[in-house]
């Protein structure tokens, strides 16, 4: 109805906004063909009327649809176009957002060196602008990228900064993310007590809020919290296995497996986490069986 009215009165900007809203609805319904059609039409209108800010927003929305489909190459193309649009507009916060989103897609693609360059540039801009919540998002991604690259000192630096900032903001997901990153670093370093402590913090944040039940039902919470929760259980299981505490290790491993089984996202990253989680859990089950017989 809104789209019809905007077209009848000749409001092109309103028409583009309505198309974006319709595209978002189709994306939620997993009707990606319709979502792409509406989003591309909205982008074309913004280009026709010279609305660069709207064009930038539509490019980001288009990237999200491509990510839902699982086409990371097309998503990255849209985000790189958005970065160029932000450069034309001259709004630094827009450029930072495009760089951070592009870094996330590159991280999904395992292009971590390129992702690192983008996230550092985006983080530098955000620090200069003082956009605190966006800084938290960027720090979380930066720490994950450094962890993937086995750069523990830099990952620790980002994670500790994120932990302090997230605590000030009262953002439990970022607090949990920081603790998980620190847990994995400490486990790799052989500091079992610190690893268990940080992983335990993730569980304390998630489980008292009914997070596990919410995540299994796939409602209310961001997809990313599922990864945090299963990885926290997995980390505790690895700590307990090293201590030869096989029964509680198995309990945490089973909890991790249950959460991994709940992941049914259409996002390619969600599927990657599912298969990665299945593989890691099977491997740790094998380690646990071997440990019990030695």
From TrEMBL:
Presence of keyword Repeat: yes
Alphabetized UniProt keyword annotations: Cytoplasm, Repeat, TPR repeat
Family: Belongs to the Rap family.
Primary location group: cytoplasm
Family matches, as InterPro entries: Bac_ResReg_Asp_Phosphatase (IPR051476), TPR-like_helical_dom_sf (IPR011990), TPR_rpt (IPR019734)
PANTHER family per record: TETRATRICOPEPTIDE REPEAT PROTEIN 29
One cellular component (GO) term of this entry: cytoplasm
UniProt source species: candidate division TA06 bacterium SM23_40
High-level lineage: Bacteria, Bacteria division TA06
Classification via Pfam families: TPR_10
Compartment(s): Cytoplasm
Protein name: Uncharacterized protein
């Amino acid at each position: 109805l809104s789209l019809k009215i905007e077209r009848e009165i000749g409001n092109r900007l309103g028409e583009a906004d309505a198309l974006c809203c319709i595209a978002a609805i189709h994306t939620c319904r997993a009707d990606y063909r319709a979502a792409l059609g509406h989003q591309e039409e909205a982008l074309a209108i913004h280009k026709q009327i010279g609305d660069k800010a709207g064009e930038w927003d539509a490019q980001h929305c288009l990237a999200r649809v491509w990510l839902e489909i699982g086409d990371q190459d097309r998503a990255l193309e849209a985000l790189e176009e958005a970065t160029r649009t932000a450069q034309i507009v001259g709004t630094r916060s827009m450029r930072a957002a495009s760089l951070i989103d592009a870094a996330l897609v590159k991280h999904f693609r395992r292009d971590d060196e390129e992702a690192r360059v983008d996230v550092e540039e985006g983080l530098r801009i955000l620090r200069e602008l003082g956009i605190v919540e966006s800084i938290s998002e960027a720090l979380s991604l930066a720490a994950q990228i450094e962890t993937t690259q086995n750069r523990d000192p830099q990952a620790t630096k980002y994670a500790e900064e994120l932990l302090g900032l997230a605590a000030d903001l009262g953002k439990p997901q970022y607090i949990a993310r920081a603790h998980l990153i620190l847990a994995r670093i400490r486990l790799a370093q052989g500091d079992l007590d610190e690893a268990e402590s940080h992983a335990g913090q993730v569980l304390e944040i998630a489980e008292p809020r009914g997070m596990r039940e919410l995540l299994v039902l796939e409602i209310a919470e961001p997809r990313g919290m599922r990864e945090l929760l299963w990885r926290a259980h997995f980390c505790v299981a690895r700590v307990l296995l090293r201590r030869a505490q096989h029964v509680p290790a198995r309990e945490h491993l089973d909890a991790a497996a249950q959460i991994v089984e709940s992941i049914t996202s259409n996002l390619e990253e969600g599927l990657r986490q599912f298969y990665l989680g299945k593989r890691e859990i099977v491997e740790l089950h094998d380690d646990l069986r071997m440990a019990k017989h030695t």
